[in-house]
Amino acid sequence: MFDTFFGLPLHPLVVHATEVVVPTAALVLLVAALWPRFRRWAKLLPLGLTLAALVLVPLSTESGEALERRVSESALVETHADLAEGLLPWVIGMVVVAAVLFLWNARKAPAKRAPKWVAIVIAVAALGASSGTMVQAILIGHSGATAVWSGVAGTPAD
Q1: CATH code of the domain made up of 4-149
Q2: Positive or negative torsion for Cα 145, 148, 149, 151
C-alpha cells in the first residue's frame, strides 16, 4: 500500500512533505509558546501543523520500510531506518504541548490570571519537544541523504 505511486517509490514523495512540515511545526510551536501575541494570532496553527506531522511521520516510516525491501541492504540504510523510528515519540510530544498551549490560550479570561509558572512550564516543554524533534529530523534527513548519495558520482561516503 505504501510502496509506489504511479510507478515511483512513495517514500521520497512523502518524506519531502515530512521534512517540511515537521520542522515548520516545531518552529511554529516554539514561537507560539514564547510569544503571546503570535500565539493569539496563530490560534490553531501550532496544533494543526503538529497533527499534520503526526500523520506524515508514520506514512514516511511505512513507505520507507516498503522502499527498504526494494533496495539492497546496507549499514547506511539500516542507520537511517533506526533513526527514523525515533521521530514519532518527539512528534507526539509536540502534539501534546500544542494541545495544552491551545487549550490554555482558548480559555475564557478568568477573573484571575494563570500563574506565571504555567507559561514557563509550557515554554520549557515546547522548547524540549521542538528541539528534540528538530535534532532527530536533521539526523534522519542527513542519514537518508548519505544512504542515497554515498558513492554516487564521486560523492564520498561518511
Answers
A1: 1.20.120
A2: positive
